[in-house]
Write a structure and sequence with these properties.
about 525 residues, alpha/beta, Rossmann fold, GMP Synthetase, Chain A, domain 3, 2 domains, 13-stranded mixed beta sheet, 3-stranded parallel beta sheet, about 25% helix, acid-thiol ligase activity, AMP-dependent synthetase and ligase, ANL_N_sf, ligase, AMP-dep_synth/lig_dom
């Protein structure tokens, strides 16, 4: 299970991706769709193998908003996905075609992904929690042969009455696509270079880099499955783990599910971890089943790491940095982090790191530059549409535009994305640093920092704050003074705005560009 910071490319590429073909065969297996090497096991065959074991034990459970928890065994998943595959085939979906999935976390979503793999098609989950105009743009870039939306839910359900067909054994040329969006708002659809074959390397627990991890795991999925971290848990399912999938993240329900179903692991963003840790009486909850947890998607505030270390133990926390393009991965365990506070670790699986300046020269130890990665495990990727390509060095290191530095021991420290950096009065300020300084204030429930146009400063540091108690928010002066006690004064917000709620996606991500545009740029 791989963590993704999900960083966005902000600069025009100086060198093309590992592949830029316009067709879906650009990176994958043979055009026939048949398994290649004798050891290849198609994802469809893997599903049938697991179903043939005949166990009636549930391996996938859905935690619905209405309080129900439907559960499915492998024979049931195999039958439902085959029924749906036949129906999708009848509507024209075939080998190498893209299947757009504009569905919330649900059994229908899982059936649809498994059905696509059985047909050798490429599932592309679509961000449904965006305005209609943006959803239309995403669909136009994906150009799916078929697109399943909420309007198709009854049709999906109706396929349960069909006879399960015998399906040929085929391999999708690409295992999936993932929707993202560049800093300019250009839709970015990342198509994996991996073929649709079962590969244990993409399902092993990240914690196994430090110690053995008991299997099968009971994996709780908190994020929408259009996000790479959540979608990747399906590969854990194919490796024998059990999934418990939340229809929508809710901190209180998460704690209850961990206790009731003895969850052993989950992946979360810092915002999710913050909301769970803020639950009243959280220290009395029974989290003893958690063997380890993984944090990704953004730099982790140090205070939050310490809080979770107190809840479950530092050695049960892993933090990772990577991106959907799969350029490489760094990771660190919580007990290592205590001696390298703020780090996201060192390269795993042969991942090499460089921190370079704007001219491509290596930055000295401890000095901030742009982070480049290279990994022998990178199977390649490509973008659909006109999203700008990632910048690449002549020897194959690539960057998603993130800024950071290396210490003397080779541990990487993230600062922020280059595109989010605020140049105020000629000085560089990284929003994540200001947010981490403010989030510990007891009067703040959530905060996002942006740079707004300013006649004196060029850009001024502006904090958008969701107060912990809307009826009694802290004053702007109090928060500015609090930040100045923790940061260099020029980094502290010059203005503060209070809102009812920070507008985050269901993956708890925030669109800084939209926040800036809504405030005049």
């Amino acid at each position: 299970m791989e963590s993704a910071l999900d960083t966005e490319a902000s600069d025009t590429a100086t060198k093309a991706d590992t592949a830029t073909e316009a067709d879906t065969e650009g990176l994958g297996g043979p055009d026939t769709g048949q398994p290649g090497a004798a050891a290849d096991v198609s994802l469809g065959r893997r599903i049938r193998e697991l179903a043939a074991e005949g166990s009636a034990d549930p391996v996938y459970r859905h935690i619905a908003l209405d309080g129900t928890e439907p559960a499915f065994s492998w024979p049931e998943l195999d039958r439902r996905s085959s029924q749906l595959a036949a129906a999708l085939s009848a509507r024209g979906l075939g080998h190498g075609d893209r299947l757009g999935l504009g569905l919330r976390n649900s059994p229908r979503f899982v059936f649809s992904v498994l059905a696509a793999w059985k047909l050798g098609a490429v599932p592309v989950p679509v961000r449904w929690d965006v305005p209609d105009w943006e959803l239309d743009r995403l669909r136009a870039v994906i150009e799916p042969r078929l697109y399943l939306s909420p309007a198709d839910l009854d049709w999906i359900d109706a396929t349960a009455d069909d006879d399960p067909p015998d399906l040929p054994d085929v391999v999708a040329p690409h295992v999936n696509g993932i929707c993202s969006s560049g800093s300019t708002g250009t839709p970015k659809i990342i198509v994996s270079g991996r073929r649709g074959v079962h590969d244990e390397r993409f399902a092993g627990p990240l914690m196994a880099n430090w110690r053995p991890v008991p299997r099968p795991q009971t994996v709780l999925v908190l994020a929408p499955m259009y996000h790479i971290n959540a979608f990747a848990t399906l590969f854990s399912l194919l490796s024998g783990d059990r999934l418990i999938v939340m229809e929508k993240f809710d901190a209180a329900r998460v704690a209850a599910v961990i206790e009731r179903h003895r969850v052993t692991t989950f992946t979360a963003t810092p915002t999710m971890l913050q909301r769970i840790a803020d639950l009243p009486g959280v220290e009395r909850r029974d989290f003893s089943s958690l063997d380890w947890i993984l944090q990704g998607a953004a730099p982790m505030p140090p205070s939050l790491v310490h809080r979770w270390a107190g809840l479950i133990g530092a050695d049960r926390i892993a933090m990772a940095y990577g991106m959907t393009e799969g350029l490489g991965l760094t990771a660190i365990r919580g007990d290592e982090w205590l001696t390298h506070e703020g780090s996201v670790g060192r390269g795993l699986g042969g991942t090499e790191l460089r921190v370079l300046d704007v001219d491509g020269a290596a930055r000295p130890t401890g000095e901030i530059g742009e982070i480049f990665l290279r990994s022998p495990g990178n199977d390649g990727y490509r973008y659909l549409g006109d999203a700008p390509r990632l910048r690449t060095t002549e020897d194959g290191f690539q960057t998603a535009g993130d800024m950071g530095y290396l210490d003397a021991d080779g541990f990487l420290y993230l600062v922020d994305r280059r595109v989010d950096m605020i140049v105020t009065g000629g000085a560089n300020v990284f929003p994540a640093e200001v947010e981490n300084a403010l989030i510990d204030h007891p009067g703040i429930a959530d905060v996002v920092v942006v740079g707004l146009r300013d006649p004196e400063w060029g850009r001024r540091v502006h904090a958008i704050v969701e107060p912990a108690d809307p009826a009694d928010p802290p004053s702007a002066a109090e928060l500015i003074a609090y930040a100045k006690n923790r940061l260099a004064h020029y980094k502290a917000p010059k203005t503060v705005e209070f809102v009812g709620a920070i507008p985050r996606s269901e993956a708890t991500k925030v669109n800084r560009g939209a926040l800036v545009a809504a405030r005049g740029g």
